[in-house]
Automatic annotation (TrEMBL):
This is Alpha/beta hydrolase. Pfam families: Abhydrolase_1. PANTHER family: ESTERASE-RELATED. It comes from the Bacteria. Coiled coil: none annotated. Keywords: Hydrolase. Belongs to the AB hydrolase superfamily. Residues 20-126 form the AB hydrolase-1 domain. GO terms for molecular function: hydrolase activity.
Length: 271
């Protein structure tokens, strides 16, 4: 059973340490996106990288539309991996929607998680005036989803460079575009709906695990107001503003990402 899960999620374990550091990729990505950050922690941690079912080199035949219709299905992927590898005291590192997926997993099994590090998290992408700014109007989201349904390649070529937010380095946007396009469009469409229509604001106060929020400048997916909302509603959270722009600093600014992660981990080490 454990081997089935490790194969299903294309789980890879490395590193010389004993404390697990579990990296969870964002929407339309895979574990390869961590290649600029994860090696910095090889000496001190046990690194676990994986692909959600339907992403990367996962077993696509294990995809269940009912299970993955909501983010809780992806949180179960994480908990399955934790059970298969008997992981505890985990440092969870999640990008984008995986931040919320990690929160859902840690609420369900708090005993497994020591800290959560969240890069560009958002509990709700749609504005809820007058009290909440998520970055998008509902009509914007509907338009994005409609474009995705009718012109998947055009959607990927338009959205990926804007998400990356590094026009001076077009290669990064092209890599994200290719990642989007290499995933089954039907699975991507369902994951997009589960992500962009989710509302996990009411879950934030339930998280008792200490957390770090890394907030980029000029992030169209998770703007500044969202990071500040997360910080104000998450108990035991730390908010750090990054010089990096865009939504993927683990790819565009890995040195800054690693530095801020290390500063947080050192500062919050048990005495």
């Amino acid at each position: 059973m454990a081997q089935d899960i490790l194969k299903r999620n294309n789980v890879n374990v490395s590193g010389k340490g004993t404390q697990p550091m579990l990296f969870a990729h964002g929407f339309g990505c895979d574990q390869n996106m961590w290649r600029y950050v994860a090696p910095a922690f090889e000496e001190d941690y046990k690194l676990i990288l994986f692909d959600y079912v339907g992403s990367g080199q996962s077993d696509v035949t294990a995809y269940n539309p009912q299970r993955y219709n909501e983010l809780t299905g992806y949180a179960q992927d994480i908990l399955d991996i934790c059970e298969a590898l008997q992981l505890n005291n985990i440092i969870f590192v999640g990008h984008s929607v995986s931040s919320m997926i990690g929160i859902l997993a840690a609420i369900q099994q708090p005993q497994r998680f020591e800290k959560l590090i969240m890069i560009g998290p958002s509990p709700r992408y749609i504005n809820d005036q007058p009290d909440y700014i998520g970055g998008f109007e509902r009509a914007d989201i509907d338009e994005l989803l409609d474009l995705m349904d009718h012109n998947f390649i055009g959607w990927a070529n338009t959205l990926a460079p804007a998400i990356m937010g590094t026009p001076d380095r077009p290669g990064l946007g092209q890599e994200l575009t290719q990642s989007f396009c290499s995933t089954d469009p039907v699975i991507m469409q369902q994951f997009a709906r589960a992500t962009l229509l989710s509302d996990n604001r009411q879950d934030l106060h339930k998280l008792q695990t200490p957390s770090l929020i890394l907030q980029c400048a000029n992030d169209i997916i998770a703007p500044l107001a969202v990071g500040e909302f997360m910080h104000s509603h998450l108990p035991h959270s730390t908010l750090r503003y990054m010089d990096a722009t865009g939504h993927c600093p683990h790819m565009s600014a890995p040195t800054e990402t690693v530095t801020l992660m290390n500063e947080y981990l050192l500062r919050t080490q048990p005495v």
